[in-house]
Amino acid sequence: MKSKKRLIEKIALERINILLRLARENLKINPKRSARYVLLARKIAMRANIHIPKELKRMFCKNCNSILIPSLTLRVRLKRGKKRLVYTCLKCGKITRNPFGKRFK
Ligand SMILES: [Zn+2]
Does residue 69 form part of some domain? Predict the structure, then answer.
């Protein structure tokens, strides 16, 4: 049973990866469709009961499902004094702060 669950997780992750890639490709051509791909990817994760890996989670806005591409839909600011990275979604204005240095963990 355990291996079956792992297989479901693996397939779900593959589909999430594909959907996020499609979302990136469609951002300029069709932003609405792009957001729908992100939403779909999140739904797949929910249904498969898996956590989306951190590196994938950073690729979209949890608030408006927009795929985040620096200078296009994402602004990144480094707050040196506070040692934090501040991400702003340019679609909805949602701000996410990440402790500096932990970004790639
Ligand atoms: Zn957003």
Answer: yes
Evaluate if pTM is beyond 0.90.
Answer: no
- Ligand 1 centroid to 55 CA: how many Å? 17
Separation of 61 CA from ligand 1 center, angstroms?
5
Report the number of distinct structural domains present in the chain: 1
- Single out the residue of 32, 36, 34 nearest to residue 44, CA to CA: 36
**Domain limits at 57?**
2-99
Q: Ligand 1: distance of its center to the CA of 66 in Å? A: 6
Q: What is the CATH number of the domain that holds 25?
A: 1.20.5.420
Question: Which residues are placed with Cβ below 5 angstroms of ligand 1, an ion?
Answer: 61, 63-64, 66, 89, 91-92, 94
Q: Which residue type is seen at 55?
A: E
Q: What does each of the 105 residues of the chain score in pLDDT, given as a tens digit?
A: 678 889 999 999 999 999 999 999 999 999 999 999 999 999 999 999 999 998 899 899 999 999 999 999 999 998 888 788 899 999 999 999 887 655 444
Distances (CA, A) of 103 to 37, 66, 84: 24, 20, 10
